Fold this protein.
Amino acid sequence: MSKRSFRTALVVVVGTIAIALGTCGYVVHRALAYPDEQHGGAGKIVEVEIQSGMSFPQIASLLADRDVIAKPTWFRIYAMWRGDTSSVKSGKYLLRDDLTPAEVLRMLVAGVKEQTTRVTLPEGKNMLELFAILDAAGVAKAGELEALARDRDFLTKHAIAGDTAEGYLFPDTYDFRVPTKPVAVVERLVTRHREVWNDLLAKHGRDAQKLEDKLHWTDRDVLVLASIVEKEAVDPPERPRIAQVFVNRLVSPDFKPKRLETDPTIRYGCEVPPQKSAACQAWDRSGRLHAAQLHDKDNPYNTYEHEGLPPGPISNPGRGSIEAAMSPDGSDYLYFVAKDARHHVFARSYDEHKRNVDKYQK
């Protein structure tokens, strides 16, 4: 090879190396600068949901598709260099579209700050009323909760007889994540009911068993009674006596026909079941029941027309009413009427009851 050819070849080699080094240096510089390069957005808030089980390449592609980052491959390499590809937490993120990749990754690793809310579910509300409270608190949609509470598979799984979870949704104060999946909400209420029920059964099991044997009841029947007591009693000490009144009406040979004759059962039949009688559909729900509802035989919850317990619970009772239903007070009263906003007066005979009605109601 001539000296000129050698020099030419050397220049080419040196030039190639210089270009390669320059390119490599540029790439390294760009790679090092990438994490802190602000994405060219306008500061708009973008909602991005990272679902459980997503791979990091899927996450990077999702962020690029939502225009939160550019260069998803570089974002993956940066996360791998940081050792954070398996540290991203699932959740719904509100990300600005002008963040740097470093800021985006830092937020995904930190996770969504969990928002919780405290909700008090009052005693004696029906399931639709409870679901409306939970919906208003942002916990879960009322319609989805109702659909689950009527779902046969869900009810079977939780050993709930009947058509709904009514009565098994324990009223209490709960802390819920916002939002929470409907199944987790309903399961939590049912679980709390079971806890309280079992606790009271351990305390009053003998009384409850005597009651069930006498009336050929199941635990669910006791719960139905508790739901009625919850709607009728205002002053807690009266609950066991009111429970006993309804039991006496069912077992006393002198009380015929054996109708409980309690207004809240009619209201429930007009408000909650999906299929309602014509009289219920005509009711304006103004708060007052009229003759059409009181004499409505097509309402299966009408305890003025049908003997015995209604088809199911009419509210979700608290501890006090469940305890009263398990262990009524043993008195022999058959009637009661309100004498003021909180208290009732009780009677053993219909004549005595009429005198009480004249005295306190008229």
